TrEMBL record:
Keywords: Hydrolase. This is DUF402 domain-containing protein. The keyword Hydrolase applies. It holds the Pfam family DUF402. PANTHER family: PTHR39159, UPF0374 PROTEIN YGAC. Transmembrane segments: none annotated. Residues 69-181 form the DUF402 domain. InterPro entries: DUF402, FomD-like_sf, Ntdp-like. It comes from Streptomyces wedmorensis.
């Protein structure tokens, strides 16, 4: 483990615009992997952009959780491009969701997931099922997929300790949002990708790292 730790510190920050891998890893293998461009990579914020039309690569099963749910929609990202904001160490990322037709900002989508782990090719995480949806026009917050999460916890997809940490993380961020004290700068809702940030088609080596 010491070797892993020293290895991680050798990775330099990814430069703006570089293409990296954003992966959900399950049972030591990629569950889903896709290329994104780096918007920011600092100790306070990692921001990456998933372009419309980008190739999604699904790991070879079987997985105890079953195939990744996005696989049902094919191997391209069909919705509007997504800016993903992550505060290093926190157990969620915040996705800036836009209307596919108009491009207008629609909602903050708080994806509860494992703290992003830096890899040689990008970042690795794992979805933790619970999501929080915060519409653009209000601070009202909607919890999503709590029942699915509790079912996963019940059947052992999360240990009792992991489940407690996930519930706490979701409750903490929900409380901050309700108080208007969310950690991210809400002007990210106006951010637009530079011209030419078109769909990416890379797939990455599929072994765990
Ligand atoms: Mg989720």
């Amino acid at each position: 483990m010491a070797e892993v730790a020293s290895q991680e510190t050798e990775f330099a920050a990814f430069a703006f615009g570089s293409v990296i891998e954003r992966r959900d890893e399950l049972e030591g293998r990629p569950w889903i992997s896709y290329p994104v461009r780096v918007v920011a990579d600092t100790p306070e914020l990692v921001a990456v952009y998933l372009s419309h039309g980008t190739l999604l690569t699904f790991g070879d099963g079987p997985f105890s959780w079953g195939p990744h749910p996005w696989g049902a929609f094919g191997d391209r990202w069909r919705s509007a491009g997504i800016l993903q904001l992550h505060r290093p160490g926190r157990g969620h990322s915040v996705w800036v969701l836009r209307d596919a037709g108009t491009g207008a900002f629609r909602e903050w989508y708080v994806n509860v997931e494992a703290p992003w782990r830096r890899t040689p090719t990008g970042f690795s995480t794992l979805d933790h099922e619970i999501d929080l949806v915060v519409p653009a026009d209000s601070r009202t917050l909607r919890w999503k997929d709590v029942e699915k999460f509790e079912e996963r916890a019940r059947i052992g997809h999360f240990s009792p300790e992991e489940a407690t940490a996930i519930r706490t993380e979701a409750a903490d961020v929900a409380r901050d949002i309700a108080a208007g004290e969310q950690w991210w700068d809400t002007s990210w809702s106006r951010w637009q990708p530079p011209a030419g940030w078109h769909a990416l088609m890379q797939s990455f080596e599929t072994e765990g790292s």
